[in-house]
Known about the structure:
Layout: H1 14-23, H2 25-30, E1 38-43, H3 54-64, E2 68-72, H4 77-85, E3 90-92, H5 110-120, E4 127-132, H6 142-154, E5 157-161, H7 164-173, E6 178-181, H8 190-199, E7 203-206, H9 211-214, H10 222-230, E8 235-236, H11 250-261, H12 266-281
Parallel strand pairs: 1-2, 2-3, 4-5, 5-6, 6-7, 7-8
Helix pairs in contact: 1-3, 3-11, 5-6
Amino acid sequence: MRIGWGHAAGPGGGGAAALVACLLWPLLAGAAERLPIFDTHVHYSRDAWQAYDIDAVLELMDAAGVPRALVSSTPDDGTLRLYEGDPARIVPILRPYRDPGDRGDWSRNQEVVDYVKARLERGVYRGIGEFHLFGAESTATPQMREIVALAVARDIVVHVHSDAAPVRALLAMDPKLKVLWAHAGMSEPPAAVGTLLDESPQLWVELSFRAGDIAPGGRLDAAWRELFLRHPERFMIGSDTFIGSRWAQYPELIETHRRWLAQLPAEVAAAIAYKNAVREFGAGGAVGLGN
């Protein structure tokens, strides 16, 4: 069973996709009534490939009501496989990590930067990331300056996993740089997130892993609510399938965000759910998202 948006079949997907659809039938049946979500933090990395083939992943997105997704992977081949399976749905961005070992020193490694430059020549990527930065000093390298220059020249985002200090340092490097801040800093309070948003019109924030902070016990926190109302155009939703096992939880990860979004005014909820991401990355022809 597929809902509304459809996709081209991926390789080897029949059995796994059918099983996923059967298991998730109750979600599929009600999906048409739910707020669509543009998921701006997806990975399809090597550890997921065997358990979840292309068609199974796309079926899970159907079940979760996700017609559009920003995807990066380690290695990048996973992103390209998903993109080939459904180019109308998948928005590729390029993760610098050729393998997990690149994570620690990638911003000081010229080989990684050369790899990024070569892959960007494919012309399909709408960003660079998600990548990790550990402290503001990790941005102060020639390699990081090259990454920033590449992103600015192509008018694409950098997707950054860090606390506030590296984000502020990156934004100071070039006023034209567009930053998508992963997890709203993971543990940064709404006041700190709001300060950065107030300072920079080139910053967007995705909210993977933050639903428990945003709505503890299921009730929308007052400080987060005020921030969403103050900057309704600057937030996006993410799931972060950083390990393969999170695909088993995927529809519930998305539904958790819908529960707190439902406590916001409808126009603000729609902006955060998908309209802000569509404005930056396009609708890709997905039914119901518009442009």
